[in-house]
Write a structure and sequence with these properties.
The complex is a heterodimer of chains A (98) and B (241). Chain A has two domains: 58 residues, no CATH class; 39 residues. Chain A is built from four helices and no strands. The termini of chain A are far apart. Chain B is an all-alpha fold. Chain B has a domain of 158 residues. Chain B is 71% helix and 0% strand. In chain B, helix 1 packs antiparallel against helix 7 and helix 10 packs antiparallel against helix 11. Chain B starts with 8 loop residues before the first helix and ends with a helix. The chains are: A mainly alpha (98), B mainly alpha (241).
C-alpha cells in the first residue's frame, strides 16, 4: 500500500466520522429545547422524503409507476422485502415496456 | 458478542432483528459495491487499498466521488473537502441518534456512530422506538459493514465483468427502500406539511444545486432542514407536538 494513498483515505475517514460525531453532539444540545426537539422528532421523515424526491424527479414514467407500486405495497405490507422486490421487478418490466 | 455490553437476550434478539431487516437492502449495497470495486481497480487502486478504503471510509457516495477526483499523488485536501460536502447529510442523521442510543456511555456511542449511513440509519428510524433500539441499530450496521467491503473487493477481483446495475433494476432498489421506510414513518407520525415542505426543498435543491460540490447531500440537507423548521415553527403553536 502506498503511504500517500493511505493518508488520503485516513483524511476522508476522519472527516466522514467527524461529521457524525458533531451531528450527534449537536442533536444532544437540540434536545434540550422544546422547539428544536420537535424539529428533531420530524427530522427522520423529512430526511427520508428528501432522499427519495430527487431519484424520482430525475426519473421517467417507468420509475414513477414502479414507485406507485412500492408506495401502495409499503402502506399495506409491513415487510421491507415485499415492496423492495416488487419495485425492482416492476421497474425492470416497465422499462422494457415503456 | 462484545458489541452488546448489556449482553442480555433482549439485546441479542434486537441485534439479530436489525440484521435481518437489513438483509434485503444489503443486496442493493452488494450490487453497488461490485461496481465500485471494478471502478477502483480501473483507477489503479490495489486490492489492499480498496479494502482499507471501504472499511475505514465506509461511505459509498464519498468513495465514488473520490474516484472521480483521483490522481497520483492523491489530492488530499480536495478529497477531504469533497467528503465533507458529500457526507454532510450524516450530520443531520447523527443528530437524530440520541434517542436510539439513549443511556449509552460515550465510550459505546462513539464507535457506534461510525456505522451511521443512509440505508441502516433509515431502517433504524423506520423501526421506531423499541426495546434495545441501539442494539437493533448495531445489527443493521454490522450487516452493511460486512457487505460493503466484501462487495467492493469482489468487484475489484472481477473487474469489468461486473454488469451495469441498471439492467437488473438495482439502481431503483435504494429508491424503493427509502420510499418504503418513508411510507412506514409517515403512516405512524402524520405531519403532511413537514412532508410537503421537505419534498419541495429537496426538489428545488436538486434543480438549483445540481452539479454543485454538495452533490448527494444538497437535496437531503435543504429538504431535511426545511421540514424540521416547519416542525419547530408548529411546535410553537400547538404545544408539545
Amino acid at each position: 500500500m502506498r503511504a500517500e494513498v493511505l493518508i488520503a483515505f485516513l483524511a476522508m475517514a476522519a472527516v466522514s466520522y467527524g461529521i457524525r460525531v458533531a451531528g450527534f453532539l449537536a442533536g444532544g444540545r437540540m434536545h434540550e429545547h422544546p422547539r428544536l426537539r420537535a424539529a428533531l422528532d420530524q427530522l427522520p421523515a423529512a430526511i427520508l422524503i428528501a432522499l427519495v424526491v430527487p431519484s424520482l424527479t430525475r426519473a421517467g414514467p417507468a420509475e414513477w409507476l414502479a414507485a406507485a407500486v412500492v408506495a401502495a405495497l409499503a402502506w399495506w405490507v409491513d415487510l421491507l422485502l415485499v415492496p423492495l422486490a416488487a419495485g425492482v421487478v416492476a421497474v425492470v418490466v416497465l422499462r422494457g415496456m415503456l | 458478542m462484545t458489541l452488546l455490553s448489556e449482553n442480555s437476550d433482549g439485546a441479542r434478539a434486537a441485534f439479530i432483528a436489525g440484521a435481518l431487516r437489513t438483509a434485503p437492502v444489503a443486496l442493493g449495497v452488494l450490487a453497488y459495491g461490485l461496481v465500485f470495486g471494478a471502478l477502483a481497480e480501473q483507477a489503479g487502486l490495489s486490492f489492499g487499498e480498496t479494502a482499507f478504503m471501504s472499511t475505514i471510509v465506509f461511505s459509498g457516495s464519498a468513495q465514488f466521488v473520490a474516484l472521480g477526483l483521483w490522481t497520483l499523488p492523491p489530492p488530499v485536501v480536495a478529497l477531504a473537502l469533497a467528503t465533507l460536502l458529500v457526507n454532510f447529510r450524516f450530520f443531520l442523521m447523527a443528530a437524530t441518534m440520541g434517542r436510539v442510543l439513549k443511556g449509552w456511555p460515550l465510550a459505546r456511542v462513539l464507535p457506534a456512530l461510525a456505522w451511521v449511513t443512509d440505508e441502516n440509519w433509515a431502517i433504524t428510524m423506520a423501526e421506531g422506538e423499541r426495546r434495545h433500539w441501539g442494539a437493533f441499530f448495531l445489527g443493521t450496521g454490522a450487516v452493511l459493514y460486512v457487505t460493503w467491503p466484501t462487495a467492493t473487493l469482489l468487484g475489484h477481483a472481477l473487474g469489468s465483468v461486473v454488469a451495469d446495475p441498471k439492467r437488473w433494476g438495482f439502481d431503483f432498489a435504494f429508491t424503493a427502500v427509502f420510499m418504503t421506510l418513508a411510507v412506514g414513518l409517515a403512516r405512524r407520525n402524520r405531519a403532511p406539511l413537514v412532508w410537503i415542505v421537505s419534498a419541495a426543498g429537496s426538489f428545488l435543491a436538486d434543480r438549483l444545486l445540481a452539479g454543485s460540490a454538495l452533490g448527494a447531500s444538497a437535496p437531503v440537507l435543504v429538504g431535511g432542514i426545511a421540514g424540521a423548521l416547519v416542525a419547530a415553527a408548529r411546535a410553537g403553536k400547538a404545544d408539545a407536538r
